[in-house]
Design goal:
With 375 residues, the chain is of the alpha/beta class. 40% of the residues lie in helices and 20% in strands. The chain is built from 15 helices and 16 strands. β13, α10 and β14 form a beta-alpha-beta unit. α7 runs parallel beside α8, α10 packs antiparallel against α15 and α11 runs antiparallel to α14. The longest helix has 27 residues. The protein is globular and about 60 Å long. The two termini are 33 Å apart. The model has no long low-confidence stretch (mean pLDDT 96).
């Protein structure tokens, strides 16, 4: 491990949830934390200034997409991703492992790495575990992720076992490629919805010099019950002294359950993608702004929301912007959705510090007309 990251647990709830602080070379942020996804050097619909106004402490950049365009070497010549996108706070970069799954029709995967055909022009590009680390180094990432094999679910036992073994071997290669001057490096626990394989993956990774560990390969085709079962079983097994990261999960319901079981960090396109499609997050669930019932509704998206969109604009106006295909719609509603998840993290942290997370969780589910899933 290096001095690229420190993690301090500041409070614990009886449930096992933690409130902490992560410090990287670009500052500190409190946990639990949601990281807005900036796939191509931008969180869709928001400027870096918007993100600062929302008080996002860390965002995610996508190594694969930035490698393809404008190119990691170009970004390095331009001063790194922080300078390129005018963002002075922390950045975590994913490794390309998710794209090896989501772009399966454009890649060939073997022990050496992943051979992609660019989704832009078909050019063949090769990403090994070592090259993934080099790409993230050139981007100037504060937190790098190992290249992993993420099987889409459902998958056979043999497919899951093979992915765990390859993820372990690739993790070891990433560790060897890492330099002392690099950012922090997180390992990724795979294993699908097989608890034995999850434990086997964790056992293989836990003693490697990672500053944090992530649960990967969830929300990739399995049902919510299986997701929660894996989180409840695996999160408490992750090292207590390092950040615990659940990759690619962003539904409010999933966030509450994962924090309850001890997860610290999250990322997902969920709030931004839903905003663009007219689905807005509220304290009681989801609101479809496209519905005709909002045509003359002068109320805000959510009466209890403190975001600038809710403070200034009505449902009627936002519906009009959506139907008119006005670009402002994306910005106003993305601000709202991202604010909702960042505020949820702050509320969860407050409940952890107070030791009242169980009652917060019950109230959260009650507001949605449901009861808390069994612990």
């Amino acid at each position: 491990m290096s001095d690229a990251l420190s993690f301090d647990v500041q409070a614990r709830d009886p449930s096992g949830a933690r409130a902490g602080r992560v410090t990287t070379r670009h500052g500190s942020f409190e946990t639990p934390v949601f990281m807005p996804v900036g796939t191509q050097g931008t969180v869709k619909g928001l400027s870096s200034g918007d993100l600062e106004d929302l008080d996002a402490g860390i965002i995610l950049g996508n190594a694969y997409h930035l490698w393809v365009r404008p190119g990691d070497e170009r970004i390095e010549r331009l001063g790194g991703l922080h300078r390129f996108m005018s963002w002075e706070r922390s950045i975590l970069t994913d490794s390309g492992g998710f794209q090896a799954m989501s772009l399966a029709h454009l890649r060939r995967l073997d022990e050496d790495g992943v051979r992609f055909r660019s989704h832009l022009d078909g050019t063949e590009m090769f990403m090994s575990p070592e090259e993934s680390i080099r790409i993230q180094r050139r981007l100037g990432s504060d937190i790098m992720m190992v290249l992993d094999e993420c099987p889409k679910l459902p998958a056979t036992t043999e497919e899951i076992r093979s992915a765990v073994d390859r993820t372990t071997r690739w993790a070891e290669r990433c560790v060897k490629e890492r330099r002392e001057s690099d950012g922090a490096l997180f390992g990724i626990v795979q294993g699908g919805v097989d608890l034995d394989e999850r434990q086997r993956s964790l056992d293989a990774l836990v003693d490697l010099p990672f500053e944090g560990l992530a649960l990967g390969g969830l929300s990739v085709g399995e049902g919510a019950d299986d997701t929660w079962r894996m989180i409840a079983a695996c999160a408490p097994e992750l090292p207590e002294d390092r950040p615990r990261y659940l990759m690619g999960v962003g539904r409010p319901e999933d966030l509450v359950e994962a924090v309850f079981h001890g997860i610290d960090m999250f990322d997902c396109v969920y709030p931004t993608r839903n905003a663009r499609n007219g689905t807005l997050l509220t304290s009681t669930g989801h609101l479809n702004i496209k519905r005709a019932e909002f045509t003359e509704d002068l109320g805000p998206i959510d009466e209890s929301c403190g975001c600038r969109t809710c403070a200034r604009y009505s449902r009627a106006y936002l519906r009009h912007l959506y139907l008119s295909r006005e670009p402002l719609f994306n910005r106003l509603n993305t601000r709202h959705n991202v604010h909702q998840l960042l505020q949820l993290m702050r509320d969860l942290r407050e409940a952890i510090v107070a030791g009242t997370l169980a009652s917060f969780r019950d109230a959260f589910w009650a507001a949605r007309g449901a009861t808390s899933p069994s612990s």
